[in-house]
Design a protein that fits this description.
Blueprint (H helix, E strand, L loop, with lengths): L2 H11 L12 E2 L2 H8 L3 E6 L4 E6 L5 E6 L7 E5 L4 E4 L2 E4 L9 E8 L2 E6 L2 E10 L5 H6 L9 H20 L1
Length: about 170
């Protein structure tokens, strides 16, 4: 996975830029970031145009959508449990194919938004706002109580599994 696609995927997670922050911006500790982000759905926009939406689940897995540089197809992606973790006072990501563990600096910009950047690289940032749409709803259902699947749900799950398989096969 290339770093430019890993940043937003991992940042969903957890994910301050060279642009000035508002006076109300508040740096989040790792524990504050967990409380603010875990289980919530966020849409995001990154410095180079990448957009998407997703959520980080309590086990550190990630599920959501990504459109690299805002062009081409939007892809549904998942990252396994343990991808996003707290290491000391940092929120970090463990990404297959990346030679180091990227960590993130997070700033809450208002009651529903935050901005994250790759630690030590202020120009590599993403902005996150609560809410999301499309396939991200599948990630929301992953933590909901299980009910008997309907034919429409089975078809939707089959389509999501096929898209996930396509993303994995492209790697």
């Amino acid at each position: 996975m290339r770093l430019c696609s890993a940043l937003p995927a991992a940042a969903l997670l957890a994910a301050t830029a060279a642009l000035p922050m508002s006076a109300s911006a508040e740096t989040l500790t790792a524990q504050e970031a967990q409380r603010f982000v875990i289980g919530q759905t966020f849409s995001y926009t990154c410095y180079e145009g990448t957009v998407g939406a997703g959520r980080i689940l309590p086990d550190g897995s990630v599920a959501g959508t990504i459109q690299i540089r805002g062009k081409g197809n939007t892809r549904y992606v998942t990252l396994p449990a343990g991808t996003i973790m707290v290491r000391g006072e940092s929120v970090c990501a463990k990404l297959k194919g990346v030679a180091f563990q990227p960590c993130f600096e997070l700033e809450k910009t208002d009651k529903v938004s935050f901005r994250g950047n790759l630690a030590g690289a202020d120009r590599l940032w993403c902005e996150f706002k609560r809410g999301g749409s499309g396939r991200t709803r599948l990630a929301e259902r992953a933590v909901a109580p299980k009910a008997a699947p309907t034919p429409a749900k089975l078809a939707e799950d089959s389509a999501a599994a096929q898209m996930t398989a396509e993303v994995v096969s492209e790697k």
